[in-house]
Amino acid sequence: ILNVEQSPQSLHVQEGDSTNFTCSFPSSNFYALHWYRWETAKSPEALFVMTLNGDEKKKGRISATLNTKEGYSYLYIKGSQPEDSATYLCAFLAPGGSRLTFGEGTQLTVNP
Amino acid sequence: EAQVTQNPRYLITVTGKKLTVTCSQNMNHEYMSWYRQDPGLGLRQIYYSMNVEVTDKGDVPEGYKVSRKEKRNFPLILESPSPNQTSLYFCASSPRLGLDGYGYTFGSGTRLTVV
Predict the structure, then answer these.
(1) Chain B residues touching A101 at Cβ < 8 A
(2) Which of A7, B76, B78, B88 makes the best surface tag, with the fewest CB within 10 Å?
């Protein structure tokens, strides 16, 4: 079973703060890294799918970077808002892989 | 609307009583998968299907069965549910897993309690 680790487990920030969290994955045998946002009482929604080393993707105030050589990805949120409160999941796919392996997530709470 | 539909949303059942959780997608996706979510354990894959009539075990397949007779449907079957199968279940689909730019589309989840 592949090991995908996310840190921190939980995070509380104030509205307007910028924040970031980490996803670590096996650096060998990489194909793709996914990020999902999961709000309470809803289902996870895809944010980014990243495949190239050095990739950087952005959606509004949320961005992500990828380092496949060292096996990590960062998710950044600029100027956090209460509606950003959610659990952020990353998931790893190996080449020829048939399934995504998920980390346990980072639970973000943005206080107004 | 493109979506993955799971039913039921909530289910309380008794040990040993066979049940089926249905999953249907209207996006013509080839790949479908079932996950369970338990506190402190993250999303763990139960079964997946690469296409019609092609299914395989994930990380935690014991106690579950699936079938993929049509592209749109991927039901999860618990032949004899036990309390350790109490969990939140998600169905997900994708055009083709690994295809650049395509993540999973998740269903709304099924919260199952086995007493």
Answers:
(1) 45
(2) A7
The pLDDT score that the predictor gives to residue B99 is 60
Instruction: Give every strand in the sheet of B4-7, ordered side by side.
Output: B4-7, B19-25, B76-78, B65-66
What does the radius of gyration of chain B's CA atoms come to, in whole angstroms? 13
Using a CB-CB cut-off of 8 Å, the residues of chain B touching A57 are none
**Is residue B115 scored above 90 in pLDDT?**
yes
Q: Which residues of B fall below an 8 Å CB-CB distance to A?
A: 33, 35, 40-45, 48, 50, 56, 58-59, 90, 97-98, 100-109
Question: Which residues neighbour B62 within 8 Å (Cβ) at sequence distance 6 or greater?
Answer: none
pLDDT tens digits, B20-77: 999 999 999 999 999 999 988 889 999 999 999 999 999 999 999 999 999 999 999 9
The terminus-to-terminus CA distance of chain A in angstroms comes to 39
Q: Quote the strand ranges of A1-112, DSSP E.
A: 5-7, 10-14, 19-24, 32-38, 45-50, 56-59, 62-67, 72-77, 86-93, 101-102, 106-111
- Contact indicator for A80, A17 with CB cutoff of 8 Å: yes
| Helix (H) or strand (E) segment spanning residue B51 | strand B42-51
